[in-house]
Design a protein that fits this description.
Thrombin, subunit H, hydrolase, Peptidase_S1C, transmembrane helix, 421 residues, Pdz3 Domain, protease, elongated, Putative serine protease PepD, alpha+beta
């Protein structure tokens, strides 16, 4: 059996083909139809191409035909991308420059804001206080040294430290914050209080406003002005870190200076001496005078977060004495004590070695051998504390003194006096 694909006609002669009927086309080739006559020969008939005009058949691509190169297309895309990137970058730079981004310190994000000018800052701000005080601050130039000072009166009196003008000659001058300068001469000095007054040969000067050093508190903000390390017009910021810090200072063999100082952590260095320490209202509350160092010579000392200023109430009183009389009065209690402290010992207080007859201490009932433990409530560690605190007050001031005599503790009111010099 076979499906007819490989079929071959038997060798028997074909039967005679009857003539075609002229009556019906249906049966005209019936005798040659292989499906009607199993003995008729079969053949595959391929239809001829249609003669009607219709859509062309989809051409078949020869996989072996040569392909067209994509290099020109890629090159066109690359050039287009570069041109678009360059144009976009140029437009971005133009827009950024016009809006100020990256070109003037304006803030990123949001609408750019113009930086405030100094004139727009509030007078009570730190910048406002600095602007107010700076014209009154001067750089004091003496032979081989530089320090600071501040204008105390419009007619040219300037307060500074005694150790700034020590050894000064007639070539003393001051430099103002606006760059102008003027000659100056020494009016008077008080080595023990470390206050000096000089007179500038220039009038109508902007004088500082004085504050009250007895009304400040630990934690109050302060600004220190001056020329540290010869860097003129410098302002540093800090707080009052302690009050009535008793200091004994001075070069060996020279004058010993005592302070009941205003301690601050505002940065103060060599050259700040004599400059003002001001409160948040721009009022002078102290005269920068002493710094502490971890070691080395005093001339090599630098800021370590501890600086000390003479209270302005004391400095102003001494300066007024110098202007009025050419010398300053020194406040005394009328007794001699051993200078130095007893912080290393368990006992505290200033022992009176001697008491002047009819002096302030003797009048109040104190005697030689008594140990003063407090003055106006301030605890004394040793003789330095008593000397420094007494000099803080003006002659004629009355202070409360607590003292120990033997095992008994007593109190007295002492009216301080000026020395006989």
């Amino acid at each position: 059996m076979t499906d007819g694909w490989n079929w071959r006609q038997p060798q028997t002669p074909p039967a005679a083909t009857p003539p075609a009927s002229d009556g019906s086309p249906w049966w005209s080739d019936a005798l040659a139809d292989p499906w009607r006559d199993p003995y008729a020969p079969s053949a595959v008939v391929v239809p001829s191409a249609p003669t009607s005009t219709g859509p062309e058949p989809e051409p078949v691509t020869d996989p072996d035909a040569p392909r067209r190169s994509l290099a020109p297309i890629l090159m066109i895309c690359l050039v287009t991308a570069l041109l678009a990137g360059g144009l976009g970058g140029t437009l971005g730079y133009v827009f950024a420059t016009r809006s100020g981004v990256g070109g003037g310190g304006t803030q990123l994000g949001g609408t750019p804001l113009a930086a405030p000018s100094a004139a727009q800052r509030a007078p009570e701000s730190l910048a406002g206080v600095a602007k107010q005080v700076m014209p009154s601050v001067v750089t004091v130039r003496v032979t081989g040294a530089i320090g600071s000072g501040f204008v105390a009166t419009k007619d040219g009196y300037v307060i500074t430290n005694d150790h700034v003008v020590e050894g000064a000659d007639d070539k003393m001058s001051v430099l103002f914050s606006d760059g102008s300068s003027a000659g100056a001469k020494l009016v008077g000095r008080d080595p023990e209080s470390d206050i000096a007054v000089i007179k500038v040969s220039k009038g109508n000067l902007p004088a500082v406003q004085f504050g009250d050093s007895d009304s400040i508190a630990v934690g109050d903000p302060v600004l220190a002005f001056g020329s540290p390390l010869a860097l003129v017009n410098t302002v540093t910021y800090g707080i009052v870190s302690a009050l009535d810090r008793t200091i004994q200072a001075g070069e060996p063999g020279g004058t010993t200076r005592y302070y009941a100082a205003v301690q601050t952590d505002a940065a103060v260095n060599q050259g700040n001496s004599g400059g003002p320490l001001v409160d948040a209202g721009g009022r002078v509350i102290g005269v920068n005078s002493v710094i502490r160092s971890l070691g080395g010579a005093e001339g090599e000392a630098g800021n370590i977060g501890l600086a000390f200023a003479i209270p302005i109430n004391q400095a102003k009183r001494v300066a007024q004495d110098i202007i009025d009389t050419g010398r300053a009065r020194r406040t005394v209690i009328g007794a001699e004590v051993s200078a130095g402290g007893s912080r290393a010992s368990t006992s505290t207080g200033a022992r009176l070695r001697s008491v002047q007859p009819a002096g302030p201490a003797a009048t109040a009932g104190l005697k030689s051998g008594d140990v003063v433990t407090k003055i106006n409530g301030h605890v004394l560690e040793g003789g330095t504390d008593l000397i420094a605190l007494v000099r803080k007050y003006a002659p004629g001031s009355t202070v409360s003194v607590e003292y120990r005599r033997g095992t008994n503790t007593q109190t007295a009111s002492v009216t301080l006096a000026a020395d006989a010099k």
